[in-house]
Hints:
heterodimer, A: alpha+beta, 4-stranded antiparallel sheet, about 20% strand, B: alpha+beta, D-amino Acid Aminotransferase, Chain A, domain 1, Dna Ligase, domain 1, 7-stranded antiparallel sheet, 10 helices, about 25% strand, globular
Amino acid sequence: xxxxxxxxxxxxxxxxxxxxxxxxxxxxxxxxxxxxxxxxxxxxxxxxxxxxxxxxxxxxxxxxxxxxxxxxxxxxxxxxxxxxxxxxxxxxxxxxxxxxxxxxxxxxxxxxxxxxxxxxxxxxxxxxxxxxxxxxxxxxxxxxxxxxxxxxxxxxxxxxxxxxxxxxxxxxxxxxxxxxxxxxxxxxxxxxxxxxxxxxxxxxxxxxxxxxxxxxxxxxxxxxxxxxxxxxxxxxxxxxxxxxxxxxxxxxxxxxxxxxxxxxxxxxxxxxxxxxxxxxxxxxxxxxxxxxxxxxxxxxxxxxxxxxxxxxxxxxxxxxxxxxxxxxxxxxxxxxxxxxxxxxxxxxxxxxxxxxxxxxxxxxxxxxxxxxxxxxxxxxxxxxxxxxxxxxxxxxxxxxxxxxxxxxxxxxxxxxxxxxxxxxxxxxxxxxxxxxxxxxxxxxxxxxxxxxxxxxxxxxxxxxxxxxxxxxxxxxxxxxxxxxxxxxxxxxxxxxxxxxxxxxxxxx
Amino acid sequence: xxxxxxxxxxxxxxxxxxxxxxxxxxxxxxxxxxxxxxxxxxxxxxxxxxxxxxxxxxxxxxxxxxxxxxxxxxxxxxxxxxxxxxxxxxxxxxxxxxxxxxxxxxxxxxxxxxxxxxxxxxxxxxxxxxxxxxxxxxxxxxxxxxxxxxxxxxxxxxxxxxxxxxxxxxxxxxxxxxxxxxxxxxxxxxxxxxxxxxxxxxxxxxxxxxxxxxxxxxxxxxxxxxxxxxxxxxxxxxxxxxxxxxxxxxxxxxxxxxxxxxxxxxxxxxxxxxxxxxxxxxxxxxxxxxxxxxxxxxxxxxxxxxxxxxxxxxxxxxxxxxxxxxx
Lengths: 508, 327
């Protein structure tokens, strides 16, 4: 017995740990979302490139495209361009799209379309960047102005981050005479960034321009300039207008560096306009889309690999163990008596077609009528098989009558009794009448009530969409369930009803 | 919640056995599934008992096919009273008790007159499985009618009271006298409203009883106290019960016996899943006793000894006997 117990314990531990590990792997490593509602924004970004091509001249258009190693992951990328050859290449931290054509003329329109979403997982490569730079040489008044500005900045800062923030703030103070001198009347963002760079170079702090796109739907947007600097561990981002650190979550880095977004050889009046829209996507759909662009094809080996129709069947089937678990708990822990083990689960499945409320009424009605017919047949002293045949035929007729009546009354529910519930109904009546014969009417009533309660509870649990999704997506959870069932197999404690059954012992 | 927990602890402290424990630790452990037919089919039980020299109501004959119904007359012979039973019946259904003959017809215990044709029809119904579990074909057996000892008259209402002893590996664990009531319509089945009365294993003196999960001291129909009655030939019952282990091979059984006024203790049937209400009848839990027996068995096994039924009865009586009815 002890060896058996040890065996059982090892088996339970094994099953549960496999279940937990595989599920955890799916959730944390593969990044499969835990609930279906976990939808993510799917962004569609269209960059429309327009320019006037010079006649009889080859055209080469170069535009930056967002690098793929950031917080957003690209699901789909497409280039819509007639007669142009397209290539994408990596330049430093940037990606650059090159459209080229031998001979075009007139107004040209090219599209770059990108679908992306927040990245669930995946380790971003460790960022790298320069931590030192040489000073930009300055002469005369400008040098004095820069030094005058730097002195208080040094005083008010503690590290690279505060230093840059303070520099941006000082430069943005356009009333400062030194700033006025350096900007020379041009107070555009790009000019101010130039001065910030100048000042930072005096302190040997490297700085990089970051061109970002704000992800906001249905608004005309253009790239915004941000500043970033590498502190040896990570990139620090700053808003050049306010000096505030940190890149907001809705910013997508399009490109970095000093070069313009687009450059056209053999054309003029190049213009890029962005339109964005977003849509919500079911988590699994999203995972599937992401899948195409990532090398993890985990979905191949889950139930999502099945054809859609089969999936729907499995979504019902995979919940049956939950129903069985409910019955197990109700019977062995609570002590409710039910008609067999699986009849309540089958009734719960039948409730899918009839709905719970109506199903209970229907089952009660038909079972009651079937049983009263049975007790009438009792008087005729018929043998078991002919008697059951009569009962079953009666049930079929009864269901037909109910369907007809409810249809005439305009209750479409009555038609919901199809083949499956009917088979279960007749089976229930048969089993119930056997129980009636063996244990008496009172017991049969108790069992019928327990069955209805168990079936309703199982039905409710089996139809929680979140639970269905979870178990369908992480089927190894069932192993944990099996572990629990195995443990229940050697449960020796009292059932809840026994605490009441044996209460006579406590009245001393 | 806390109240329930206290109740749980109190029951556990008294060694009350629950269904889960009975199934996991006793029925599943000691009763091999393949041996169930021996106790489920009364004919097999009876044959085994006769082979082992254990007293059972005398078997007049078996009818297994429609053709054999012709032999009914021959089987009944000169007996004026007998019982017709389905071999695999449950809950006492399909049992016909003929008490006398009357002008070429038969008279049941309740005084109803039945013809020979009606008897044949009844047997035919038994054969088609009208009374058997799940409607399987069945056999009918015709046997000696037990006449209950008059000792039970004062505390019993109709029917035949029987004595159930729970036996673990041949060691009697607990005993109960089951008395039919008006509610149970003469059947000695606790679920159907019969009374269970605890019996002291050592002396055979009745203790208080249980009726519908409550403790009682008086019979609800006769209002006579049920305790303090000395059952005759108690040691006979105990030996009979203890011997049933060898008879069927099942380790945890309920042995149902009757006391016939002339033949003494007889075995009626065996039950592989004996109920738990015997605990209420005896106001005592089963678990402490079964654990004591299991410990004793382990000790015997170590020493390589096997005890005879008489020794086993003595062991049980010494350990579990001489309880006085709680007042």
